[in-house]
Amino acid sequence: EAGVVQSPRYKIIEKKQPVAFWCNPISGHNTLYWYLQNLGQGPELLIRYENEEAVDDSQLPKDRFSAERLKGVDSTLKIQPAELGDSAVYLCASSPGGTVEGNEQFFGPGTRLTVL
Amino acid sequence: AQSVTQLDSHVSVSEGTPVLLRCNYSSSYSPSLFWYVQHPNKGLQLLLKYTSAATLVKGINGFEAEFKKSETSFHLTKPSAHMSDAAEYFCVVSYFNKFYFGSGTKLNVKP
After folding, report:
1. CA–CA gap between residue A47 and residue A35 (Å, rounded)
2. In DSSP terms, which residues pair with B5 in a beta bridge?
3. d(Cα A44, Cα A22) in Å, to the nearest integer?
4. H-run or E-run covering B93
5. How far apart are CA A81 and CA A19, in angstroms?
6. What's the pLDDT band for A25 if we cut at 50, 70, 90?
7. Peptide bond preceding B40: is omega within 30 degrees of 0, i.e. cis?
């Protein structure tokens, strides 16, 4: 079974440029998460989707960040314009969803963004 | 409200000695609890999870954790550390598809 796929793995851009990250979750997983991970810290949730609906985006800086999950499968996270402080690893995770006890998250390898 | 506290940001052990990584949680509900490991420049990998079955949970690579409700703890242990265990470990509490991460513990294993 294929895991969570993310691309690109690395991205270097100059500040004020746009950037987009793509995530393909595990087949059949209804819940998709985007996290931001700064160096030496734990992941911080940006947005959570249940199918195609964003059910928790309270931590997403909506002035520059946007996300979509058309058709409830793969997802794109965009930053426009990027700032120096956006340099971090962006993680995508998926889980089966529903209210099954012990639902675990499966993580992709992440995209390391460097803003110069 | 749900939260997770990892009591040590860094732990250093010698190879072959026991490992203890401490985690306390607070949850208004019966939680699901997880430990994830992250090796440098790699994604997060599930070590083990607790739902509501046995309180002693065995995971991969010889790790185990014990859920203690009275102490609201879920400490991770391993009898004998290996060099390959050097990584960052995250304790996570979950409720209804929301996951709350601890700040992580970096494990250093000395030869």
Report:
1. 7
2. B24
3. 18
4. strand B87-95
5. 8
6. very high
7. no
Q: How many beta-carbon pairs below 8 A join chains A and B?
A: 55
Amino acid letter for position B90: F
Please write down the HEC assignment for all residues of B35-89: EEEECCCCCEEEEEEECCCCCEEECHHHCEEEEECCCCEEEEEECCCCHHHCEEE
Pairing of strands B3-6, B23-26: antiparallel
B24 to A81, B54, B106: CA distances (angstroms): 39, 18, 16
Q: Say if residues A110 and A6 touch (Cβ distance below 8 Å).
A: yes
Burial B12-47 (b: 16+ CB within 10 A, else e): ebeeeeebebbbbbebeeebbbbbbbbeeeebbebb
- Residues A57-108 have pLDDT tens digits of 989 999 999 999 988 899 999 999 999 999 999 999 999 876 566 678 999 9
pLDDT at residue A34, as a whole number: 97
Q: Which residue of B has its CA nearest to A109?
A: B43
A77, A89, A108, A75: which is closest to A11 by C-alpha? A89
Chain A contact for B55, CB < 8 A? no
Query: Which of B25, B99, B106, B108 to mutate to probe the A interface, most A CBs <10 Å?
Result: B99
CA-to-CA separations, B9 to B5, B24, B108, in angstroms, rounded: 10, 13, 11
Residue B34 forms contact with A (CB below 8 Å): yes
